[in-house]
Design goal:
The structure holds two protein chains of two kinds. By secondary structure, chain A is mainly α. Chain A has 14 helices and no strands. Chain A has a single domain, classed as MetI-like fold. In chain A, helix 4 crosses helix 8. The longest helix of chain A has 32 residues. The two termini of chain A are 29 Å apart. The model of chain A has no long low-confidence stretch (mean pLDDT 87). By secondary structure, chain B is α+β, with helices and mostly antiparallel strands. Helix content of chain B is 25%, strand content 33%. Chain B has eight helices and 19 strands. In chain B, strand 1 and strand 2 form a beta hairpin. Chain B starts with a strand and ends with a strand. At the A-B interface, helix 9 and helix 10 of A face strand 6 and helix 2 of B.
C-alpha cells in the first residue's frame, strides 16, 4: 500500500512504540534488578540503571543457586531444561510425522477412527489428565528422570494433525511417480515426504521447544530432587516466602537466564519458522 | 520394447458397479496408441491399470508376453508421464531424472550417461541444476518425459501430458512427442480427451465411452467409418451431423455438405449461426420441417453464407447410417 498521510504514519508509529515499551520495559527492569544488590532493589524507588553486581549475581546462581531459597545450581537446571526442550520437540516431530504418514498414505482398517482418536485428545489439556499420567509415570519408576520429564509430553495430536494436513496437500501423483520409480513406502518417506516437510518441522520445532522449555506443572509434580529441577521450577523454588526474604537480584538473574534459550531459538530459526507457517512448497 | 495385450480387462471399485466393462486390444511392439474419450469414460483408469497403479478386477494385462496383473509398477518395466508432471519439487532436474535409476542401483557412471543423453534429446542440458519451480510449464513437461526416457522402459504411458500447456506449446510438444517416438520407437500408450491430439499422434486409437471401447482403429479409418453414433459425434469438429431418416440415423460430415439450388437439395437448413473462419465458413442451423436435428456445414469461404434458408446436398457415397436405438453403424 502506498499512502502519504503523515498523521497516520505518526500515529501508527506511536502505537508501535508504546507496544514495544509495554513489552520491553518489564524485561529491562528484570535485567536491571539482576545487576543490583538485594539492598539496592529494596530501596524505593528501585534504581533504573544497571548496577555493578552483574558478574557476582550470575556466577552465584549458575554455580550455587540462591543463598536463602533453593541452593540448586542454575547451570544444572539450564541443562535439564535444555534436555527437556530438545527431546520433546524432536520426539514429537518423529512420532507425529510417522503417525501422519501412516494415516495419510496407508489404507488400514479403522484408519479414520484412529485419526479421530488422536484428534480428540486435542480437546483435553494436559492438566485434565495429569493425575492419571502422574500415576502411570510413578508406577513405571520414572519420577525424577529425564524419561519422566519428556516421554509423557511427546505424544501430540496437534503435530500429527499439522503433518496430516500438510501431507494431504502433497499431490497423489508424487506418491505414484515414486512407486513407478520403484521407491517403497519408507524410501518415499525419506526421499520425498521428509524433505518436503522441512519447513513444517522447523515451525513445529520452534513452537514445541518453547512449549517444552516453559513446562511448569509437569516438572513441578514429578521432580523432587534438586538435580532434576528445570529452570522454570528453579525460579519458583528460590521463592521462600515473605517479600523481604526473597533474593530478588538472584531470582531476576535466573529469570534472565531462563529467557535466553527460547529467545535464541526464535531468533535463529525465525526465517524457517515463518516459512513453515505461511509457505507450502510444492 | 514390447507388445502390450489387454484381454477383457475390467475394473470395478465397488462390486457390481463396473467402470471398465471389458476392454481387449493387442498393441504391437513399437506402436503409438492413443486412448481417447470424454472425461469420466475410464481412459485414465485403463492406463493406470497398465501402469499398475490400479488393481485389475478381472481380465489380463500382458507386457512383452508376461502377465503383469500382480506386479508392482516398478517391476512392469514401464515409465509414466503424469498430467501434472509429478516432479519431485525439492530435487533438481538431474535428481528427478536420476532418482528411479538410483533406486534400481545402477552405477553412477551409467546414471550420468543416461541422464545426459536424455537431457540432450530434450534440450535440457543447461537446466539440469534447476528446481522444477524455477522452470516453465513446457520445460517441466520435458523433465517429466526425461524421467521416463532415462528408464529405457518397454512401454511409455502418458496420462494427458499436454493438457496443462497453453495451445501453442501443446502443438509444439505434440510434434516433439512424434519425433521422440520415431527416434526411440518405444511402445506408447497415450491418454487424452483432445481429438486433435489423438488424430495427429496415434498410429491406432481406441475411442472409449462410459467404460467401453467403442472403436479401435487407425485415426483416419475411424474418422471415415465411425462404428457408433458416439464415435461419429466425438471425432471431427464440428462433429458429424446425425439426422433422423426413416427410423434410422443418417450421418454426414459437415465438410461433405455443399450448397446447391433448392430444387436439387437433399436437405433444407434454417441457418441461425454463421462462423466465418477465413479458410472456410461454418454454418449451423436446424433441418427445416423436422423438429430438433441440428446441422453444421463447412462451406467454402467463397460462399456468402447468411442466416435463413439454405439448400444443401451431399454425395450419397459420403453418407453413414446408424441404428436409431443402439447407435451402431449399419453397413450399406
Amino acid at each position: 500500500m502506498i499512502e502519504n498521510r503523515p498523521l497516520l504514519t505518526a500515529f501508527s508509529h506511536a502505537v508501535l512504540i508504546l507496544g514495544v515499551l509495554a513489552v520491553a520495559f518489564p524485561l529491562y527492569v528484570t535485567f536491571v534488578a539482576s545487576t543490583l544488590t538485594l539492598e539496592q532493589i529494596m530501596t524505593v524507588p528501585m534504581p533504573l540503571v544497571p548496577g555493578t553486581q552483574f558478574l557476582e549475581n550470575y556466577s552465584q546462581v549458575l554455580a550455587a543457586g540462591s543463598t536463602k531459597g533453593s541452593k540448586a545450581a542454575v547451570s544444572t537446571m539450564l541443562f535439564n531444561s535444555t534436555v527437556m526442550a530438545l527431546v520433546i520437540p524432536l520426539g514429537k516431530i518423529t512420532v507425529s510425522i510417522l503417525a501422519a504418514f501412516a494415516i495419510v498414505y496407508f489404507r488400514f482398517p479403522l484408519r479414520n477412527f484412529f485419526f479421530w482418536m488422536i484428534f480428540v485428545t486435542l480437546m483435553l489439556p494436559v492438566e485434565v489428565r495429569i493425575i492419571p499420567t502422574f500415576k502411570v509415570v510413578a508406577d513405571l519408576g520414572m519420577l525424577n528422570s529425564y524419561a519422566g520429564l519428556t516421554v509423557p509430553l511427546i505424544a501430540s495430536a496437534t503435530a500429527t494433525f499439522l503433518f496430516r494436513q500438510f501431507f494431504l496437500t502433497i499431490p497423489d501423483e508424487l506418491a505414484e511417480a515414486a512407486r513407478v520409480d520403484g521407491a517403497g513406502p519408507m524410501r518415499f518417506f525419506w526421499d520425498v515426504v521428509v524433505p518436503l516437510s522441512k519447513t513444517s518441522m522447523a515451525a513445529l520445532f520452534v513452537i514445541q521447544f518453547i512449549y517444552g522449555w516453559n513446562q511448569y506443572l509437569w516438572p513441578l509434580l514429578i521432580t523432587s530432587e534438586e538435580s532434576m529441577y528445570t529452570t522454570v521450577i528453579g525460579i519458583s523454588r528460590m521463592l521462600v516466602g515473605g517479600d523481604a526474604a526473597n533474593e530478588w537480584n538472584l531470582i531476576m538473574a535466573t529469570a534472565m537466564l531462563a529467557l535466553l534459550p527460547p529467545a535464541l531459538v526464535v531468533v535463529l530459526m525465525q526465517k524457517w519458522f515463518v516459512k513453515g507457517l505461511v509457505e507450502t512448497e510444492k | 520394447m514390447a507388445a502390450v495385450s489387454l484381454r477383457d480387462v475390467r475394473k470395478s471399485y465397488v462390486a457390481d458397479v463396473p467402470v471398465i466393462h471389458g476392454v481387449s486390444m493387442e498393441i504391437a511392439d513399437g506402436e503409438f496408441v492413443v486412448i481417447l474419450g470424454p472425461s469420466g469414460c475410464g481412459k485414465s483408469t485403463l492406463l493406470r491399470m497398465v501402469a499398475g497403479l490400479e488393481r485389475i478386477t478381472a481380465g489380463e494385462i500382458a507386457i512383452g508376453g508376461r502377465v503383469v496383473n500382480e506386479l508392482e509398477p516398478k517391476d512392469r518395466d514401464i515409465a509414466m508421464v503424469f498430467q501434472n508432471y509429478a516432479l519431485y519439487p525439492h530435487m533438481s532436474v538431474y535428481d528427478n531424472m536420476a532418482y528411479g535409476l538410483r533406486i534400481r542401483g545402477l552405477a553412477q557412471s551409467e546414471i550420468d550417461a543416461r541422464v545426459q543423453k536424455a537431457a540432450g534429446i530434450l534440450e535440457l542440458t543447461g537446466l539440469l541444476a534447476r528446481k522444477p519451480r524455477e522452470m516453465s510449464g513446457g520445460q517441466r513437461q520435458r523433465v517429466a518425459m526425461g524421467r521416463a526416457i532415462v528408464r529405457e522402459p518397454q512401454v511409455f504411458l502418458f496420462d494427458e501430458p499436454l493438457s496443462n500447456l497453453d495451445a501453442k506449446l501443446r502443438v509444439q510438444m505434440r510434434g516433439e512427442l512424434q519425433a521422440l517416438h520415431r527416434r526411440l520407437g518405444t511402445t506408447s500408450l497415450f491418454v487424452t480427451h483432445d481429438q486433435v491430439e489423438a488424430m495427429t499422434l496415434a498410429q491406432r486409437m481406441i475411442v472409449m465411452n462410459a467404460g467401453r471401447a467403442e472403436q479401435i482403429g487407425a485415426p483416419l479409418e475411424i474418422y471415415a467409418r465411425p462404428a457408433t453414433t458416439f464415435v461419429a459425434g466425438f471425432i471431427g469438429s464440428p462433429p458429424m451431423n446425425l439426422i433422423p431418416r426413416e427410423g434410422r440415423l443418417l450421418g454426414i460430415r459437415p465438410e461433405h455438405l455443399e450448397p446447391c439450388a433448392e430444387s436439387a437439395a437433399a436437405i433444407i437448413v434454417e441457418v441461425d449461426l454463421v462462423e466465418p473462419l477465413g479458410a472456410d465458413t461454418l454454418v449451423y442451423g436446424r433441418v427445416a420441417g423436422s423438429e430438433g436435428a441440428r446441422v453444421a456445414a463447412r462451406l467454402p469461404a467463397t460462399h456468402r453464407a447468411e442466416v435463413g434458408r439454405l439448400a444443401l446436398r451431399y454425395d450419397p457415397g459420403n453418407v453413414h447410417w446408424f441404428d436409431a436405438v443402439s447407435g451402431k453403424r449399419i453397413e450399406a
